[in-house]
């Protein structure tokens, strides 16, 4: 599920429309007047329709004969799409999104760690250790390196369950975890190596209870890191706001 890579005016138009839609600028079921919108954006109808195609591919809009382009019901939106995740956060729903992501992780990842400890193979051990080494190497590096390393480790853990459905839950985490990591690793946060290392060692030792417990501790740290960053951002906003 790759992010849309469009750049230039086309990419800017897609992003602008996506953020407007996710912020409620277009209501569910609302017909979008493409002629009026093209005039507002000073954009040709052809260019606007190309941008609309990208939104349609993400389940955000549709078209009907005689009705034209309309906003699809929220239940049709691909909320796991990387761009939709970013637009949702940009639209001001970041706190809600990250809380939902944390709840999802609380439900799935301890069980994944427990199952991985029961079923991991030698190749899983190699990948988990390599991913943990990447995390350690990225601690003092740019946020993007930390994001890649963290995603590699979580994918390795899911793969170690040897349960195809668990492995596919990667789609739940990839986009959301990437944005969460960019937020957290862009500010003050605890060293992620000990918590990830504890899960890794428990999985390698084939100790399901220890793996589950270590994962719950990792998730508690993740919540604390995120809260620290969001509280700092809120305090900065208060300081910058005119009195």
Characterize the structure shown.
The protein is mostly helical. The protein has two domains: 9-76, Winged helix-like DNA-binding domain superfamily/Winged helix DNA-binding domain (Arc Repressor Mutant, subunit A, Orthogonal Bundle), CATH 1.10.10; 92-240, GntR ligand-binding domain-like (Four Helix Bundle (Hemerythrin (Met), subunit A), Up-down Bundle), CATH 1.20.120. The protein contains ten helices and two strands; from the N terminus they run αααββααααααα. It has helices spanning 8-22, 34-41, 45-57, 82-119, 122-138, 143-159, 164-168, 170-185, 193-204, 208-240, and strands at 61-64, 68-71. Strands 1-2 form a two-stranded antiparallel sheet. Strand 1 and strand 2 (68-71) form a beta hairpin. It is elongated.
Throw out a few tags for this protein:
Four Helix Bundle (Hemerythrin (Met), subunit A), 2 domains, 10 helices, two-stranded antiparallel sheet, elongated, 243 residues, mainly alpha, Arc Repressor Mutant, subunit A
